[in-house]
Design a protein that fits this description.
3 domains, two-stranded antiparallel ribbon, single chain, mainly alpha, 10% strand, 11 helices, 309 residues, elongated
């Protein structure tokens, strides 16, 4: 009997350290799964050749309550010892969610809720409440948790940007800074230009001029739900909406998109220039000017470039 037990123990020890003939695969351990259910899952995916021995070893080593739920990438030819270490580690696969700079909350929610890795319904946050960057979450994460993390990131970034704003900044609140940053974000993707764009809009506000920002009109026309899909027509500039900064002076009621950190910083630290106008220059950037005359010249140049395309 002792010899039999010794032989069995030797076999278990060999099996424990011997690579299984499995391919690289991904498995998902449900939350609350029993040891038998975990062993059966591993067997079904051909990660283990003996679920019974797996359960014996897990019980014997006292780790039955330490195996963590989640999605795991299991490498090929893994030993049961290595497998148990992976399941104890909780190092689950993380799936990225990228909020693109200038993307609206509506588009982001559509993207999350259509992703099979995430679950649950979620309400669309207030526009501008989320900080654009790539976030990582495990399979099965609730959509509301994803949005909450993005909201906390934006709240922190906005708080810092407002606290570090330049002296004598003309805006009166962090929310106004956020609104301005969202317009800057939609006007240019070039980071070096952003403080110049910020200066143009702040200079216009100081002089009581309408901002005349095309992205605010597009937001009014689409309600931030989709791209316009065409250039603005002259008649669009008369579209009745508090977001239409051709009709209404001052900032729009809310942000028109989720601005990046660079746009927040630009809104907080505008360039020290007297520019009141800017227009596309044909190279992906913009030509800035202080006077309407110079602006009209730049605009004429842009029309020539545009008409040649």
């Amino acid at each position: 009997m002792i010899a039999l037990l010794s032989t069995f123990a030797g076999y278990v020890a060999y099996w424990f350290q011997h690579p299984q003939k499995n391919e690289k695969t991904t498995i998902f351990i449900e939350k609350g799964a029993s040891l038998s259910q975990i062993a059966e899952t591993l067997s079904q995916y051909e990660i283990l050749n003996s679920p019974l021995l797996f359960k014996v070893v897990v019980y014997a080593t006292g780790v039955s309550q330490k195996l963590k739920a989640g999605e795991y990438l299991i490498p090929p030819s893994i030993t049961p010892a290595q497998l148990i270490h992976i399941l104890k580690s909780g190092e689950v696969i993380l799936h990225g969610v990228t909020l693109i700079e200038g993307e609206t909350c509506h588009r982001l929610v559509e993207k999350i809720t259509s992703n099979a890795h995430f679950q649950g319904a979620c309400e669309t946050p207030e526009e501008g409440a989320l900080l654009p960057e790539t976030y990582h979450f495990p399979h099965g994460t609730e959509c509301s948790i994803i949005l909450s993390r993005m909201q906390k990131a934006m709240a922190h970034a906005l708080e810092e940007a407002w606290a570090e704003r330049c002296d004598n900044h003309p805006l009166g609140s962090p929310q106004e800074l956020l609104v301005l940053a969202s317009i800057i974000e939609k006007e240019t993707s070039k980071t070096p230009e952003k403080p110049l764009v910020a200066a143009v809009f702040l200079n216009r506000l100081k002089q009581g001029m309408p901002l005349q920002a095309d992205p605010t009109v597009i937001y009014a026309l689409t309600n931030g739900r989709e791209g316009l899909g065409r250039a603005l027509f002259r008649g669009d500039l008369k579209f009745e909406s508090p977001y239409n900064t051709y009709l209404y002076r001052g900032l729009p009621p809310t942000p028109i998109a989720n601005p990046s950190l660079s746009s927040l910083k630009a809104a907080a630290h505008p360039a020290n220039v007297a520019y009141l106008y800017f227009v596309a220059d044909g190279s992906g950037g913009h030509a800035f000017s202080e006077t309407l005359g110079d602006h009209q010249k730049h605009h004429a140049n842009w029309r020539k470039i545009r008409d040649k395309k």
